[in-house]
Amino acid sequence: MMGLVYEAHDPVLGRDIALKAIHLAVAVPEAERQSFEERFVTEARSAARLAHPGIVVVHDVGRDPATGTLFMAMELLRGETLDRVLKSGRLDWRVALRIAQRVAEALHHAHANGVIHRDVKPANLMLQDSGEPKIMDFGIAKIETSQLTATGQFLGTPLYMSPEQAQAQALDARSDLFALGSVLYEMLAGRAAFAGESVTKILFQIMSREPEPVTLAVSGVPAGVDYVLARCLAKDVARRYPDGRSLAEDLDDILSGRPPRGQTAWPGAVTAGGTVVGTSPMLAPPVRPPASGTPTPLGQRPASGGGRRLAAAAIVAAAVGAGALAWRSATVGPTVARRVEAEPSPANAKDTREAPEKAGAKGESDSSAPARMSFSFEHSLKSGALKVWVDDVQVIEEDFGGRVTRDIAGLKLRKGRLADALEVAPGRREVKVQVAWEDNVKTETAWANFKAGSTLRLKARLGSLGGLRKDLSLEWY
Q1: Any idea which of 10-14, 164-168, 271-275, 445-449 has the lowest mean pLDDT?
Q2: Residue 228 burial (CB count, 10 A)
Q3: Chosen CATH of 80-255 out of 3.30.70.270, 3.40.630.30, 1.10.510.10, 2.60.40.10
Q4: List 92, 119, 253, 351, catalytic entry
């Protein structure tokens, strides 16, 4: 609504340029027009003080003497914005990491020169015909000592803004790195890390929930990517990358087949299947899993009260800030379902996810190879109990708790997340999920056709903002 960009020709230097001019779509008060013009000049000054191949070049800024219109002359880029590219689907992980690496390097240069972009998003990243990205649109950038975009103004795009930006708090360079992490997640997963039907729901997601580890959503992505995303998207600013260069180095390591160099020094939480093992006093302490190769007898609980096997080391530190607990194992006969150690998909594994079928009778397939179900549960409750059945046989029974993540004007926002994996006998199965808390009980049922060797993923969600209605939803993906 603020301006137009023209393709123009500079007759003095004989080159084609992009000419950006203020052109308001609707009439606004004079004070608001002046605010637009100040922001426009801020954009020009922000970009003009930067000289990096990953940042758009500003040649000139001025005002047309005949009309009084402000204009900015910039380099003309040939290519497509990243948001248009992503409309065709997610990117190959190597391409996504290379783009993120280049953008991280460019942001490091901007931050070193005192410029925070504050609106890093796919629409502001141009992928040139060469494949190299360029950061554009510094319209709400904050220059050190500048008061134009001071704390307290809600500026930016909700889908990609950091928790501190969503709460109009003071920002530093790490806010841009959170936004870049959100962009990287979308490039890899083909969907936003934080999404909702309204700005309120999006902000709730950003402040209180963690996205699903991308290695569980997409096969073939290296395990180190989960660590990178967890560090970029940490709610606590102090747990994020200190600068863009550190992020770029870790991405380069993964692309080169090396472990990310920053991972060993990062104080990330140890996770179990994507669930952070917390130390909240309201949660039972983690228990040791059974020794490898020693299964729990059918129909019995381990003597210690049960133990949830830790996920493979490849997904350690994959998710941040989830409410966690020790699982109490409820095992069943192998002909229906049993809990197994959660492992990431191998790099060469075929993606066998499928939409659940609506028709068909229960029954075994001809093959004896088991299918697999990856189950996760997200909630915003203080405490409660979770039960899961497969064909009326209970396979999960857990008490859970959620920790307070934000207290906004007396409104306590909580979150918790559980994750587990099951082996399921092939055939059409009924999966029932029940959540109980206080005087409430919510139950939902989902059907799926489990084929031998396939993997289906079921996500259960229960929660809402504050004390509003809480609904349980199940989603195959």
Answers
A1: 271-275
A2: 26
A3: 1.10.510.10
A4: 119
Q: Which residue in this structure is represented by tokens 């405490």?
A: 383
- Residue range 241-247: average pLDDT? 96
Query: SS3 breakdown of the chain: % helix, strand, coil, rounded to 5?
Result: 25, 30, 50
* pLDDT at site 81: 94
Tokens 């409104």 identify what position? 411
3-state DSSP assignment of residue 171: coil
Which structure tokens are listed for 189? Answer: 């997963």
> Which DSSP string do the residues of 96-130 spell out, in sequence order?
HHHHHHHHHHHHHHHHHTTEE-S---GGGEEEETT
**Residue 136 carries which side chain, given as an amino acid letter?**
M
72-94 pLDDT per residue, tens: 888 999 999 999 999 999 999 99
pLDDT at 222 over 50: yes
DSSP state for residue 131 in the 8-state scheme: S
In the residue annotation, 119 being an active-site residue is answered as yes
pLDDT digits (tens, 9 = 90+) for 419-474: 888 889 888 888 999 999 888 888 888 888 888 888 899 999 886 544 445 788 88
The CATH number of 3-75 is 3.30.200.20
DSSP codes joined into one string, 63-81: E-TTT--EEEEEEPP-EEE
- Rounded CA-CA distance 21/61 in Å is 10
- Residue 246 identity: S
CB 54 within 8 A of CB 132: yes
Give 197: exposed, middle or buried? Use CB within 10 Å, 0-12, 13-18, 19+: exposed
Q: What is the mean pLDDT of residues 354-372?
A: 52
Contact of 320 with 235, CB cutoff 8 Å: yes
